[in-house]
Amino acid sequence: MVSATPEAVVVCDAQGVIRLWNDGARRIFGYSSSEAMGENLDIIIPAKLRKRHWDGYHQTMATGHTRYGDKLLSVPATHRDGHRLSIEFSVALLRQDDGRIVGISAIMREVTERRNEEKALRSRLAELESRLAELESTVG
Fold first, then answer.
1. C-alpha distances in angstroms, 18 versus 33, 37, 59, 127?
2. Which stretches are transmembrane (predicted)?
3. Nearest Cα to 19, choosing from 36, 42, 1?
4. Long-range own/partner contacts, residues 127-132 (CB < 8 A, 24 or more apart)
């Protein structure tokens, strides 16, 4: 299932080192498994978001709690060639039998086209609302 799914499946250890990188991750982010394995998530996290990401990651590893365990997250990411992506993902903490956290898994989907369409629709709606307000003030 992990190798066949079109979604990116990425597993990192407690230090944030990539331990599993499926073909979906290769397709979305542009890095082969051999290039990604042993690296950390900085290869796909935009530079301006890295500190925030790692602060949260290390806090989660230390406490065993994430506020994102049951939510679908939407964030920007970076492709190997440098272009920006929009992704949605969910995470699951990986625990040993004694409850100690040993890593985290994420299932990611690239949604750049949809996000761009939504942005264009919001812009068009704002433009139309502005025109309507102008017409109402002229008529009224």
1. 10, 5, 18, 44
2. none
3. 36
4. none
Q: How far apart are CA 95 and CA 16, in angstroms?
A: 15
Global pTM value: 0.79
Alpha-carbon 67 to chain mean position: 15
Residues 26-41: tens digit of each pLDDT: 999 999 999 999 999 9
Tokens representing 109 are: 């989907």
Question: Which token pair is 26?
Answer: 């290769």
CA distance 113 to 121: 12
Tell me the C-alpha distance between 27 and 88, whole Å. 15
Q: Look up residue 106 and give its amino acid.
A: A
How many C-beta neighbours within 10 Å does residue 121 have?
A: 10
Q: Supply the mean pLDDT for the chain.
A: 90
Comparing 14-18, 106-110, 134-138, which segment has the lowest mean pLDDT?
134-138
Residue 4 CA to its chain's centroid (Å) = 20
Note the pLDDT tens digit of each residue in 44-97.
999 999 999 999 999 999 988 887 777 788 899 999 999 999 999 999 999 999
